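During the no-cost extension, the postdoctoral fellow (Dr. R.K.) reprocessed legacy sequence entries with the updated structure-token encoder. One reprocessed record is reproduced below for audit purposes.
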Amino acid sequence: MFESELAILGEGVAFGPGRIDTLGAEVVARAGAPARVLLVADAGVAAAGLTTAAETSLADAGVTVRIFTDVRSDPLAAQIDAAAQAARDLNADLIVGLGGGSAVDVAKMAAGVASGSAPAESYALQCDPFGENVLPIIAVPTTAGTGAEMTQSMVFTAGSGAKLWSDAGNLRPVLALLDPELTVSLPAHLTAATGIDALVHAMESATSHRTKPQTHAPALAAIRLIRRYLPVAVREPTNVEARSAMIIAAALAGRAIDSGGTTIAHALGHALGAVGHVHHGRSVGLSLRVALPGNAEAAPGPHAEVARAFGMEGSSDTDLASALPAAYDAFLREVGLRIDVADSGLTPEDAERLAGEAMKPENAPMRKATLRPIEQPEMLGLARVLLAAT
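Re-encoded structure tokens follow.
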């Protein structure tokens, strides 16, 4: 099952229920024996016992392990610096990131920071900023959303509170170890939010100025899987087939954004995360909800492709594209994603602050990748719709 989708992912991926038990062997294959590994995981993952199997597998392979768990959602630059110092202190040969996108991003960024002496923030908004002595990374996702296990980019939070990014080809993990059993304990609301994150990655990468021929196969395959299996994973959390489909879909979407990038939903979504501390998957999902009507009108062809992958039928690209926003909205509600943001403390009066955050320079690449101009008036209008949504 899922052979065609795994073929699209290609090399550098190990998939299967129980695959975490092979982590030690995978480390030794890449770092030799005896090896020293920094295992980065957030505290919630550790508390849920998900680090135990990883530690056991590493220990059985004779690997020395140090665990670093000071990782929060939208991780801080200071946490990356601390993880990098832990890797230096251990004289680590490799870093394993176990968890959601935040843990994997900390592992990736720390692998680069540890190779030099500059702090994490000095690498913000740069492409390929790291030297050649970057530590190899194995990524083991415990959510099916960010696709960070497949990408060369990282997102983190500066001391000022701004959400920043860095991008470097040598920080793409050498292996993405995909074990769907690690995701079965994820509660329904996080299953939905992370799954929508993957869906947004796939939809944006397929409809971006940066889209390349190699973007389409993983993006459209991810959309097909998510449309079919995310509702099942939300309803039946222990359904391993659905969890398998979703962890593969997230990786496919990660592969897609590595070539096609993200657009307006991530610019506005990052701002919503910074201003209202809304979960990343939900924030980009809600942001695409308000941006999609204008996006689809401006570029019906690419959005019709997305609609077909989403299971919609029709002969006219224009008709399919115009129907996509309503279908997407219905899907968000089907999987139980909360549409209003009252729980964030934000109100429509915060629209100018939200739009201002989205227009900051660090979000410019995502705005410019959108297949229509996004200037301040447009961003303000989107912010107002988002904050007034019910």
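The domain at 19-178 is CATH 3.40.50.1970 (Rossmann fold). The CA atoms of residues 263 and 365 lie 8 Å apart. The remaining legacy entries will be reprocessed before the final report is submitted.
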